[in-house]
Design a protein that fits this description.
This protein has about 475 residues and is of the alpha+beta class. It is built from 13 helices and 20 strands.
Length: about 475
């Protein structure tokens, strides 16, 4: 099964645009103008006469973020797996971002630390930009398509006809709240994020809601911007990870260059460890990290207030387990699964969901049946990201959810590989292939990788035991 999963994951992550698209829909409606919703609209533009994106936020005023994405002010990086998909659906997208001011971190400009120890360097690339900047570019490319239309409106409910979704009811911005528009659709996409009300609407229609799994991570983080003009020479992205071990406060901190000639610095903590909006507290926390953080916060001018955010849990909705799933309905992005954001998997997962939607629409024979094949493909992507993030989440001392079957063995293997990745460039390369969503996690637990990691760790511990 792992080899099959690896192969399917690799196929979904291809950089090659599909060559066999066909129009099979009159109208598709996407509920939500997030990155996930916009990418779904891009895919649908090849299969529908008309694609309508319904979004309640005023996107003309979204250059500083929008209410529907309260974490917009926090640090975002575009992992390689997501970047490949954005370039797949929007040729030249990465080049456009860089030309507009996004920052490409490559090779030695990327520094990573685990528990204070510098990880082995590898050849890698990361594009850094603020969330509003990145989202505005995705939105501009999507809405430039002739058959994609944006309507500012608040979705009130999904409508049904027999065993299928038939459309949505929405209130248009600027119209009286009690004037509801009925919009028919052959396919409805839920891109309404973590707070999606789709489960309530299914329940109201007498249908089961998807089962939801939660892990109470109680994550707190804060981001501040600084004007560039100082800081670490030669580095543009620095990540410092502290693992959940006795006597340590677990968390991840990120320092990265972004558009506008700025540094963005993110600090995170769990449970009672809460970075505050106090600039002095922010700087003091940075001084406990690798020295590059202190160089930025002490030498560069803060460009705005410290922004904080809290996420209580990681969650996933298991649509693939629904026995009675209505036809004409799919979900994407955080409406399916929302992970611990410090691992940066959200945007790349959403991009891969678009790839799942494309594969489904190119292979489906009848839209009168539930989109089970789509949700099975999405399950593969969700499982990959969920496995990567929750291995660490479940190790946090304040998380009391029961361990899944095989967790302790998987955790030992994960710790072994992570420890070996600190000193071995090849193990670190394989590790980053998975964490950047280029390959499936099953590729990382192949015997050759585990044996290599064990040998490296034994050798290092033997050297540490040798008396001086």
């Amino acid at each position: 099964m792992s080899r099959k999963s690896s192969r399917r994951f690799r196929d979904l992550g291809t950089s090659q645009p599909p060559a066999d698209s066909r129009v099979i829909l009159r109208r598709a409606v996407v509920m939500g103008g997030s990155i996930a919703g916009l990418l779904a609209a891009r895919v649908l533009s090849e299969h529908a006469d008309q694609v309508v994106v319904l979004e309640r936020d005023d996107l003309e005023a979204a250059h500083e973020g929008r209410p529907g994405a309260p974490h917009s002010s926090q640090v975002h990086v575009l992992l390689h797996g997501g970047r490949v998909q954005l370039d797949r659906w929007f040729p030249g997208f990465s080049d456009d971002l860089l030309a507009a001011g996004a920052v490409l971190s490559r090779d030695g400009a990327i520094r990573m630390y685990v528990n204070g120890a510098a990880k082995a360097p590898v050849s890698d690339e990361i594009i850094s930009a603020s969330r509003p900047f990145l989202e505005s570019h995705v939105r501009a490319r999507t809405l430039s398509l002739p058959n994609v239309h944006f309507i500012r409106a608040q979705v009130r409910e999904v409508t049904f006809s027999g065993d299928r979704v038939s459309g949505v009811r929405c209130a248009l911005a600027g119209e009286p709240a009690d004037e509801i528009k009925n919009m028919a659709a052959d396919l409805v996409v839920d891109a309404m994020g973590r707070s999606s009300r789709l489960g309530d609407w299914l329940d109201r229609a007498g249908l089961p809601r998807p089962a939801m799994r939660r892990i109470g991570i109680d994550l707190n983080y804060a981001t501040a911007g600084f004007r560039r003009g100082g800081g670490p020479p030669g580095a543009t992205t620095v990540q410092a990870i502290v693992l959940p071990q006795e006597g340590r406060q677990a968390g991840t901190s990120v320092l990265t260059a972004v558009e506008g000639d700025r540094w963005a610095v993110l600090l995170s903590g769990f449970a009672a460890d809460r970075p505050t909006r106090d600039p002095d507290d922010f700087r003091e926390r940075c001084r406990r990290l690798p020295p590059m953080f202190a160089e930025v916060v002490d030498e560069c001018q803060m460009s705005g207030p410290v922004a904080t955010y809290r996420q209580s849990d990681a969650r996933r909705r298991d649509f693939h387990l629904m026995h009675h799933l209505p036809a004409g309905l799919v979900a994407v992005g955080d409406a399916v699964a929302s992970f611990n954001p410090i691992y940066g998997q959200g945007m790349s997962s959403a991009a891969l969901h678009a790839s799942c939607l494309s594969a489904y629409l190119r292979s489906v024979t009848s839209l009168s049946e539930p989109a089970r094949d789509y949700f099975e493909l999405v399950r593969l992507v969700v499982d990959a990201a969920w496995q990567t993030s929750t291995l660490n989440d479940l190790a946090l001392p304040h998380v009391d959810e029961p361990y899944p079957r095989g967790y302790r063995i998987a955790r030992r293997i994960s710790d072994l590989i992570l420890e070996a990745s600190i000193t071995d460039a090849e193990i670190n390369r394989r590790f980053l292939q998975v964490t950047h969503m280029r390959t499936h996690p099953s590729d990382l637990i192949r015997p050759g990788t585990i044996f290599r990691a064990a040998r490296i760790t034994r050798s290092r511990k033997s050297r540490q035991r040798v008396p001086s």
